[in-house]
Design brief:
alpha/beta; four-stranded mixed sheet; 39% helix; globular; binds N,N,N-trimethyl-histidine; transferase; MeTrfase_EgtD-like; methyltransferase activity; Dimethylhistidine N-methyltransferase; EgtD_Methyltrsf_superfamily
Length: 319
């Protein structure tokens, strides 16, 4: 009798993506423990301006930010989707905690290791702070946030994570955000803004090779977890920026015609010479589009917090 393969979500999505024409892989799978570590390296390099911008926004405008989170020092829950190492959020956590505001921090991340180290870190840095980390896909974890809790929420979605979504995914995400928030709840969303293409391309194609390593880690992950036989030598990393749409796209492109076996899928995939595999969208926005997204999903845009170069915006919306 033929045995049906029991496939993990990664396996199912990989099968779907590599069977499609054109081929693609999903960017959420970049963040295994190795990929999360490489992304930390990306955030530490000067070319990746996004992190520095948000760092500046939080450092210089923490008083104004706290004022909009909590009117008169009222209590609230700070939920963060895709918290990572929390390096930027920590600036605010220290500030809010030191002001004596009663609040809890609920970080949600897809990497268990990243979550564990953030929790350990905060325990040492801010022993009095109540931290309740959750590990999982933030789409799913968001769903679990009850809509009937009486404590007001401020939900962070920083670092231009929203840039990874297609238009449809953005609408779905903001729709859910809207559904799982109550009137008066707030969201703070980080958007990378349109700017010089040279500046943008350098952030995603850096001289240190971190971006390249980050994209290639997806293939290594498939080799590790799905017993795939990808040879990184068979591909080149390429990224493009379209100044009209604001779409930065990452690709792996086959350098030679070849086959790659994936044991867990019991299948061989064929790659033509110069066939692209679409790996990631990192969309750049303009302020008009951001305002439109807010109103389209039932939010009122309260204030835009930008850095001194106007490279990046943390947009605060209220339900
Ligand atoms: C974590 C999604 C914000 O799109 O800028 C960095 C990921 N990809 N370099 C981004 C990423 C390549 C990053 N986000």
């Amino acid at each position: 009798m033929e045995q049906k393969l029991l496939l993990s979500q990664l396996a199912t999505d990989t099968l779907k993506g590599l069977s499609a024409n054109p081929k693609y892989l999903l960017s959420k799978y970049f963040y295994d423990d190795m990929g999360s570590a490489i992304f930390q390296d990306i955030m530490h390099m000067p070319e990746y301006y996004l992190t520095n911008c948000e760092h500046e926004i939080f450092s210089k405008q923490k008083n104004e930010l706290l004022k909009v989170f909590s009117n008169n020092g009222d209590t609230f829950n700070l939920v963060e989707l895709g918290s990572g190492d929390g390096s930027k959020t920590k600036i605010l956590l220290h500030h809010i905690f030191n002001k004596g505001v009663d609040f809890q921090y609920l970080p949600i991340d897809i990497s268990q290791k990243t979550n564990d180290s953030l929790a350990a870190n905060l325990k040492a840095e801010l022993p009095g702070l109540i931290v309740k980390p959750k590990t999982g896909d933030y789409f799913n974890e968001l769903q679990k946030l009850t809509s009937d809790d009486s404590i007001p929420k401020v939900i962070f979605f920083l670092g231009s994570n929203i840039g990874n979504f297609s238009n449809e995914e953005t609408a779905e995400f903001l729709g859910r955000l809207s559904a799982y928030t109550n009137s008066g709840d707030k969201v703070l969303i980080g958007f990378d803004l349109k700017k010089s293409p040279t500046v943008i391309l350098k952030a995603y194609n850096d001289p240190h090779g971190h971006s390249r390593r980050f994209i290639f880690n997806h293939l290594h992950r498939l080799n590790r977890e799905l017993d795939a036989a990808f040879d990184p030598q068979d591909f080149v990393h390429h990224c493009t920026y379209n100044p009209e749409s604001g779409e930065l796209k990452n690709y792996l492109i086959a350098k030679t015609e070849h086959n790659a076996q994936i044991d867990a899928l019991e299948q061989v995939f064929h790659f033509e010479k110069w066939e692209p595999v679409f790996m990631e969208l990192s969309r750049k926005f303009d302020l008009e589009t951001i305002g439109q997204l807010a109103t389209d999903h039932g939010f009122e845009q309260i204030r835009n917090f930008t850095d001194s170069r106007n490279y990046f915006v943390d947009s605060l919306w209220e339900r």
